[in-house]
Amino acid sequence: MTEGGQNQREHYRIFYRAPDQPVFQCDQGKFPVLDISEGGFRFSFKKGALFLEKDYLEGTIHLPNKRGTVFVKGHVLRVFDQEIAVHLDADGRIPLARIMEEQRILIQKGRL
């Protein structure tokens, strides 16, 4: 955050809480998604780091309530506590239209 509370992130980000959390599914398992943006996402894991910084991964984000899936691919940016931050490749990003649709749905549900 900068002075005055301005967020300096490159992309707009949507933060999720249960029960509206998407699930990231990849070869290593299924993980609850904490937030998404066009250029990346964060997910949580229970025990032991399954991923290391710079690891390549790809998989599918399953949106709740049958809202569809999004294929993503990129590299692990950070591993901290029980969270993984992923930076998505240019051809594995989440489309802005999907981010805006998720925002609209969460606002309608009073969850954003």
Describe this protein's structure.
The chain has one helix and seven strands. The two termini are 19 Å apart. A hairpin with a 6-residue loop joins strand 5 and strand 6. The N terminus is likely disordered. A six-stranded antiparallel β-barrel has the order 2-3-4-7-6-5. The protein has one domain: predicted glycosyltransferase like domains (Thrombin, subunit H). With 112 residues, the protein is mainly beta.
Topology of this protein?
Elements: E1 13-15, E2 23-26, E3 29-37, E4 40-44, E5 56-62, E6 69-80, E7 83-88, H1 96-108
Antiparallel strand pairs: 1-3, 2-3, 2-5, 3-4, 4-7, 5-6, 6-7
Sheet bearing the most strands, described?
6 strands, antiparallel, barrel
CATH superfamily: predicted glycosyltransferase like domains
- Structure class: mainly beta
**Beta-sheet strand percentage?**
35-45%
- The whole-angstrom Rg is 14 Å
Number of helices: 1
* CATH top level assignment: Mainly Beta
Using the alpha-carbon principal axes, give the shape: globular
Low-confidence stretches: 1-8
Helix amount, in percent? 10-25%
Mean pLDDT: 87
Oligomer: single chain
Give the name of the CATH architecture.
Beta Barrel
The count of strands amounts to 7
Q: Count the domains.
A: 1
N-to-C order of helices and strands:
EEEEEEEH
